[in-house]
């Protein structure tokens, strides 16, 4: 048997395994709508299918959440979902809030799922480091994997090409958010990034380069991020990475259900004005088609978020109080005292957490404790890295044992 024959046999085995997995999860198809065809070619094996999405959503039920953050602004007003063409300005209204997105640098407006995934990474890193300067890494492949994307897709429609295009659009753009009511108006405007350096070689994405690629966020944009970040499970974002509407709904539901004490009813027309592609077009057929898409995405989200409670009485979506995937109130905060270092503040938090929950002293609870420490640090605005978290946990556990 030749090397070529071995490679061919290996590819066929992988494809057969994928077909078998698809047959095994057929019973869950009702959750995500019409069945998708099973991959039948080596090229299709690498595509993100509905089966892949279902697997990813089911996996989020197990293990600890991957805590990330998104800015509150995007829970109030959404970015473009479809290609806005040559338009240089985008406007979205939600009640008293109005968002303007303005293209810059001779580029066009960002749209779709990739700017949303990019902003989730940006917000998470900004909250974690408390710095306007964010390092993207020394290779394009490394950065793409952080976003849950496939770095091997270099074709015109591949992830690599699309990401580069959307990064250029997003980081050159400016945003303005205003709030207007009967009392008056408030607004804030900022460039998304004041400065950027990109040294990656698109044709050789795996090769590390001499200098790190980085961006410096606009001052007011950075302040908006760290002022009131919305905690999210990044695993769910990665599982929903092919649906801009699904990403928007997950962020909005996380933000809207926080502190909800009684059922909230919203008409489908209200929801379409907030999330629809063309808010000015609210005829019955358009809104009904939008309703079907929302319900499809909600069924997906409920796989990863089983406690999500909603009803669909005639003409409305009824939201019920639901515990979030990541509850910031239960995670607590590592509130620093004057003069505290990051290590001291986090060590004190670990000691307090262990006093309240002694079971976290057990070796198999280290993962849960580490996740709590990271979220507490982020909420308190304390910069941290893996070494700081580990050192704080070790010191706090030592104190608790005495």
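Q: What amino acid sequence fits the structure above?
A:
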């Amino acid at each position: 048997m030749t090397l070529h024959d071995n490679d061919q046999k290996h590819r066929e085995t992988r494809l057969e395994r994928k077909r078998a997995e698809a047959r095994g999860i057929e019973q869950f198809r009702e959750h995500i709508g019409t069945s998708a065809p099973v991959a039948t070619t080596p090229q299709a094996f690498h595509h993100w299918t509905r089966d892949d999405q279902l697997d990813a959503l089911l996996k989020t039920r197990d293990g600890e959440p991957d805590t990330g953050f998104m800015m509150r602004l995007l829970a109030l007003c959404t970015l473009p979902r479809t290609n806005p063409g040559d338009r240089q300005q985008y406007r979205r209204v939600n009640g008293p809030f109005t968002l303007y997105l303005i293209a810059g640098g001779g580029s066009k407006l960002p749209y779709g799922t990739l700017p949303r995934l990019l902003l989730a990474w940006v917000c998470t890193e900004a909250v974690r480091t408390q710095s306007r300067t964010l390092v993207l890494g020394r290779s394009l492949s490394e950065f793409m994997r952080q976003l849950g994307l496939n770095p091997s897709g270099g074709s015109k429609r591949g992830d690599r090409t699309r990401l580069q295009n959307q990064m250029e659009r997003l980081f050159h753009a400016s945003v303005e958010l205003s709030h207007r009511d009967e009392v008056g108006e408030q607004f804030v405007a900022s460039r998304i990034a004041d400065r950027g350096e990109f040294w990656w070689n698109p044709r050789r994405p795996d090769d590390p380069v001499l200098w790190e690629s980085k961006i410096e966020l606009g001052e007011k944009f950075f302040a908006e991020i760290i002022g009131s970040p919305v905690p999210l499970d990044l695993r769910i974002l990665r599982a929903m990475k092919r649906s801009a509407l699904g990403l928007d709904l997950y962020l909005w539901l996380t933000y809207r259900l926080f502190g909800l004490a009684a059922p909230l009813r919203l008409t489908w027309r209200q929801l379409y004005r907030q999330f629809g592609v063309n808010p000015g077009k609210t005829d019955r057929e358009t809104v009904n088609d939008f309703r079907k898409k929302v319900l499809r995405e909600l069924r997906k989200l409920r796989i990863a978020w089983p406690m999500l409670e909603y009803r669909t009485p005639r003409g409305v979506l009824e939201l019920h109080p639901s515990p979030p995937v990541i509850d910031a109130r239960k995670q607590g905060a590592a509130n620093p005292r004057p003069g505290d270092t990051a290590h001291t503040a986090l060590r004190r938090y670990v000691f307090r957490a262990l006093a309240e929950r002694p079971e976290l002293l057990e070796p198999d609870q280290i993962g849960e404790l580490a996740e709590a420490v990271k979220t507490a640090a982020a909420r308190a605005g304390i910069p941290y890295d893996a070494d700081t978290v580990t050192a704080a946990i070790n010191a706090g556990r030592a104190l608790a044992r005495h």
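Q: And what stands out in the fold?
A: Residues 77 and 99 are 6 Å apart (CA to CA).
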